[in-house]
Every structure is written in C-alpha cells, then in structure tokens.
Amino acid sequence: MSANGLEFNKVAASVLLAGIIAMTSGIISEGLYAKGEGEHGKEEKRGFSIEVADAAPAGGAPVADDKPVDIAPFMAKADVKAGEGLIKKCTSCHTFDKGGKNGVGPNQWGLVGSHFGHKDDYTYSAAIMAVKDRKLDAQGLSDFLANPKKDVPGNKMSFAGISNPQDRANLIAYLSTLK
After folding, report:
1. What does each C-alpha distance from 161 to 60, 70, 119, 136, 147 come to in angstroms?
2. What predicted TM-score, i.e. pTM, was given to this entire model?
3. What is d(CA 161, CA 122) in angstroms, rounded to the nearest whole number?
C-alpha cells in the first residue's frame, strides 16, 4: 500500500471514530439528562427537597407580622437630606423635577398629598387605576413603598420595596418638599 493510501485510511478512521464517540456521548447524555419515564411508567423526580419550618429570626426576635407599620413616629424624626439620597433608587424609572417628563414610571413632582394615578399624561396599569382615588399621604405612601407588589397586586412597578420604615419616612419627607 502506498503512503498516500495509508494517510487516507488514517483520516477516514479518525472521522469514523469521532462520529462513533459523538453518537455514543449523545446517547449516554440523553439517558442521564432526558426527562424520560422512571420505573413503572411514572415520571422520575430528580434531586431532593428540603422542607423548612417557619422559625423565628436569629436572636429570638419575634417574627414580623404583615400589618402596615405606623409611619407617624418615623416621620417625626425624618431626615429630608437622607431621603434625597434615597431618591437615587427611583431615578432609573421616575423623574422628580417640576414639569419633568415621565419615564418608565410617572414623574413624581407633587406626589405627596395627591392620589394614585395622579398624572393625567401617564398610562397606569389596571391595578393602579383600580385604586387611583386612594390618597398618597405619608401612611399611604409608606404602605406602598414597603412592598408595591403586595400593596397593589398586579401593578407594573418592578421595585421590590423599602423594608426600613425610617428610610421610607426619610424618602417621604424629601418627596414632601417637591411641590
């Protein structure tokens, strides 16, 4: 056999071997990872679940209840400057200048003391429109800012909320200056 024919055989064998390895790997991985049926025709559940009982937070503190926090005591010691610093969390969606354009969310000038759906030139979600006459006083804003999705289920706001009531009071104190 010539050297040229031997080289051809080596290349052909390499291609054939690579194909066999790829096919075998595919069959093995499909067997390992496919959502095939388990024993007796039932779907096999992979992994395991860890069940956790509701427990008190570390330090023996009581579990916080879901009742709205009375914001009045926090408003009494609210810091407008600290609230102005917190506004940065909101500027990706809202503007705060007088006559400012709406962003992803409505402009917030004059928000405190108004009501949900306070901007005529903004298209609110159906959830917000359902509560549009609800007053945005300090308590109403605090309840909403604590957890917007829980306070008004179905609203478009993707913000998770501000859990610290003093931070909410500081933010509301700053928003109160925008009139």
Report:
1. 25, 16, 21, 16, 5
2. 0.62
3. 22
Provide the 10 A C-beta neighbour count for residue 144. 23
Q: Mark whether 74 and 154 lie in a shared domain.
A: yes
Band the pLDDT of 1: cuts 50, 70, 90.
low
Number of domains the chain contains: 2
Please check whether residue 50 lies inside any domain of the structure.
no
Q: What is the Cα 54 distance to its own chain's centre?
A: 23
Per-residue pLDDT at 166 exceeds 90: yes
Closest by Cα among 154, 111, 151 to 135:
111
Containing structural domain, residue 13 = 3-35
DSSP string, 11-77: HHHHHHHHHHHHHHHHHHHHHHHS--B-GGGPBPPPS--------PPGGGPPPPPSSPP--HHHHHT
